[in-house]
Design brief:
By secondary structure, the protein is an alpha/beta fold. It is built from ten helices and eleven strands. Strands 1-2-3-4-7-8-9 form a seven-stranded parallel β-sheet. A hairpin with an 8-residue loop joins strand 5 and strand 6. Helix 7 packs across helix 9.
Length: 297
C-alpha cells in the first residue's frame, strides 16, 4: 500500500559502491519509510584512471557500470512507490576530471552533482582532499600552501569557479565545504571569502545551476552548519538561484537528517521555496517547486 509522501527528496546519497555504509536497496527502503518523494544516487565518480589519485571514497572504474545498472534496476523495483534517479557526484580536479568528460556523458545519467573535493597545489605538492581526514588535510595544507589557510581558501573557490565555467552538471555540491576542517573557525578575512562567494553566486546564476543545501556535515557530527552557510545562502537568494535540500547521506539513518534545520536556515535566508527533481525529459531536468512552510517537516 502506498503511503502519503512528504515534500522532500534525498538526491545526494552514497552507497557501498563508494564510501557509503548501506546498499542501494537499503537506501531506497529508508527513503520510502521516511515518506520521501524521491531518492537519487550520487556515488563519487571514478577518478583514478584520469588522475592517478587513489582513494577509498570513489567508485572504481571497474564498478561504475554495475553501479549504474543496480540504480536503474532499483528504479524499476520501486516504480509507483518511490522515484529513483541515477546520478553521480563528479569531482572537479583541475585539468584532469570534470562533468564534461566523455566517460561521464556516456553513462546518460539522470543528473550530476558538481563538487570540489581535491585541491592541486600550485607548488607541485601532492593533491589532497579538503574535506578528508584531519591529518591528511593538515599535511596538504602544510606542504601545498605552507600552512596558509587564506591561500587554500582562494584555491578552493578558484576551482569552483573553473568547474562552473566548464559546466556539464546540474547541482552545485556543498559550496563552502572548505570550512569543514577549520571547525567553524574563521581562518581568513571574512570579507575576502564574501567576495569569492558573491562571485560563485553570480556564476551559478548565469549557469542556471541548482545549489544544494547540504546537511551532511551536521549528520556526521563534523560541523554545526549546513553547506552553504546562511550568509552564502542569502547571496544565492539575491540572484534568484533555486536550491534543493540534501542530506549527503552515507547511511540509511541519515537519509533525511536535519532537514528541519535546513528549512529553518532557508527561511532565515528569505527563501520561500526549494525544488525537487521531478523527471528528466529529452536531456532536460524538470524541477518541481515546493513552497516552504514551518510545518512541513
Amino acid at each position: 500500500m502506498n503511503i502519503e509522501k512528504r515534500p522532500f527528496s534525498s538526491m545526494h546519497t552514497h552507497t557501498l559502491f563508494c564510501d557509503g555504509k548501506d546498499s542501494i536497496e537499503t537506501m531506497c527502503r529508508a527513503a520510502y519509510e521516511r515518506k520521501l518523494q524521491a531518492i537519487g544516487f550520487s556515488g563519487h565518480s571514478p577518478i583514478f584512471e584520469k588522475t592517478g589519485i587513489i582513494t577509498d571514497s570513489n567508485i572504481s572504474e571497474e564498478k561504475i557500470d554495475e553501479y549504474v545498472s543496480q540504480a536503474r534496476r532499483a528504479k524499476e523495483r520501486w516504480q509507483g512507490k518511490l522515484d529513483v534517479f541515477t546520478g553521480l557526484e563528479v569531482d572537479y580536479i583541475k585539468g584532469l576530471r570534470s562533468a564534461q568528460d566523455s566517460d561521464i556523458k556516456a553513462l546518460n545519467l539522470d543528473y550530476t552533482i558538481g563538487s570540489v573535493h581535491f585541491i592541486i597545489p600550485a607548488n607541485g605538492a601532492q593533491p589532497f582532499a579538503i574535506d578528508g581526514p584531519r591529518d591528511e588535510f593538515e599535511k596538504g595544507l602544510a606542504e601545498g600552501f605552507n600552512g596558509d589557510a587564506q591561500a587554500l581558501m582562494h584555491s578552493y573557490y578558484d576551482a569552483q569557479e573553473e568547474m562552473i565555467a566548464i559546466g556539464g552538471f546540474d547541482i552545485l555540491g556543498h559550496a563552502d565545504i572548505i570550512k569543514k576542517n577549520f571547525k567553524n573557525k574563521i581562518c581568513w578575512p571574512a570579507e575576502e571569502e564574501l567576495i569569492r562567494q558573491k562571485e560563485i553566486a553570480k556564476s551559478a546564476a548565469r549557469a542556471g545551476l541548482v545549489v544544494e543545501v547540504n546537511t551532511g556535515g551536521i549528520n556526521r557530527g563534523k560541523i554545526n552548519d549546513v553547506y552553504p552557510s546562511l550568509t552564502f545562502l542569502r547571496l544565492l537568494r539575491e540572484h534568484n538561484i533555486q536550491v534543493i535540500i540534501t542530506s549527503d547521506a552515507h547511511c540509511a539513518d541519515h537519509i533525511d537528517g536535519n532537514y528541519d534545520y535546513a528549512l529553518q536556515t532557508l527561511i532565515y535566508a528569505n527563501f520561500s521555496e526549494y525544488v525537487l527533481l521531478k523527471q528528466k525529459n529529452n536531456e532536460k531536468i524538470i524541477w518541481q517547486k515546493v513552497k516552504i512552510s514551518q510545518n512541513i517537516v
